[in-house]
Amino acid sequence: MRKPRDFDAELKALNDKARTLRARKVSQLGELVIACNSDSLGVEQLAGALLATAKADTATKEAWRRDGASFFRKTSRDADGDDGHARGIAARDGAASSDAAKPGAH
Q1: How far apart are CA 12 and CA 82, in angstroms?
Q2: How far apart are CA 52 and CA 42, in angstroms?
Q3: Which residues of the chain have pLDDT under 70?
Q4: In contact, 86 and 75? CB cutoff 8 Å
Q5: Angstrom distance (rounded) from CA 80 to CA 2
Q6: What is the pLDDT of residue 79?
Q7: Least buried of 36, 69, 81, 93, by fewest C-beta within 10 Å?
Q8: Could you give the 3-state DSSP secondary structure of residue 24?
């Protein structure tokens, strides 16, 4: 006889995993803001800049993507052994990093 599935336990595990992934995403976005030296901007300025990215045309977004990719290659290459911060961001999942780099590049 088959053992019945515990749907409640599976659902709880999936919710826990989703919560962990959201927390990691928030942390990575904060690290990206710091790595780009955008933490010196006021919250309103940073929010305005991010909102402007949503209205940008495709060519502008592509240029920002290239700038962001260049930024991560540069920081990864220039990071010394004492400061693995920028290298750690660049080494993470490439899709998440390049998606996150779009708004902060300009």
Answers
A1: 39
A2: 15
A3: 79-106
A4: yes
A5: 56
A6: 63
A7: 81
A8: helix
Contact between 73 and 91 (Cβ < 8 Å): no
Residues 6+ apart with CB under 8 A from 28: 89, 92, 96, 97, 100
Q: Which two tokens stand for residue 102?
A: 């779009």
Contact 49, 103 (CB under 8 A): yes
Q: Whole-angstrom Cα distance, residue 2 to residue 104?
A: 52
Q: Cα–Cα distance between 53 and 102 in angstroms, integer? A: 8
**Distance separating alpha carbons of residues 65 and 102, to the nearest angstrom:** 5
Q: Which residue, chain included where needed, has tokens 């993470």?
A: 92
Token couple for 85 = 């911060």
